[in-house]
């Protein structure tokens, strides 16, 4: 009788026999989910989440339900990465939520995006590192731009909601007894904009 132990498979799918949860989402209001659902079923998905709101809409109720339902060892399947996320940061946030619950992820059309395998996990770790590097570059450029503007005597930030003349006029009206709300309505701004005139001088938008 051989005492050799079976070799571990290359994929955690084979070892854990997880529940496969398929997530389908339309990209336009006129699109149907049929083709995606067929692919997900063919890949073994037994629980299906159908998102009928297009990607332009922020509320993804079915994705929220999936993230609530998912259990340790489960695998979330999508036909393509853009069915799950609208940006790299969005994708990494969702994958982070799945990892926190001990679940995994696989995109049928993107073999590298497969956290059931060591190679897939490595690729997504690299992606997260690149996203962080990009954010650091943006922060650095923003900081350099502010430093240059300060050195040149330019002001950063959004344009002021009120012109200097309007700011002075608003102060005089308030000192004359007019309410902040009335002044704000006359300039079509929030009353807090007028209040800030007395807290910090000029009012940014």
Could you describe the 3D structure shown?
This protein is of the alpha/beta class and 205 residues long. It has helices spanning 12-16, 34-42, 61-69, 81-84, 88-100, 118-151, 164-175, 180-187, 191-195, 197-200, and strands at 20-25, 47-51, 75-78, 104-107, 110-114. A 5-stranded mixed beta sheet has the order 2-1-3-4-5, with helices on both faces. The protein is elongated. Strand 1 (20-25), helix 2 (34-42) and strand 2 form a beta-alpha-beta unit. Among the domains are: 12-117, 3-Layer(aba) Sandwich (Rossmann fold), CATH 3.40.50; 164-200. The protein contains 10 helices and 5 strands. 50% of the residues lie in helices and 12% in strands.
CA radius of gyration: 27 Å
First CA to last CA: what distance? 80 Å
Strand order of the largest sheet: 2-1-3-4-5
Question: Total helix count?
Answer: 10
Number of strands: 5
Mean pLDDT over the full residue set = 76
Do you know the CATH architecture of one domain? Answer: 3-Layer(aba) Sandwich
The assigned structural class equals: alpha/beta
Please write the string of helix (H) and strand (E) elements.
HEHEHEHHEEHHHHH
Q: Which sheet architecture does the biggest sheet show?
A: 5 strands, mixed
Poorly predicted runs: 1-10, 12-16
For the record, what CATH class of one domain applies?
Answer: Alpha Beta
CATH superfamily of one domain: Resolvase, N-terminal catalytic domain
Q: What is the percentage of strand-forming residues?
A: 5-15%
CATH topology grouping of one domain: Rossmann fold
Q: Quick one: overall form?
A: elongated
The helix fraction, in percent, is: 40-55%
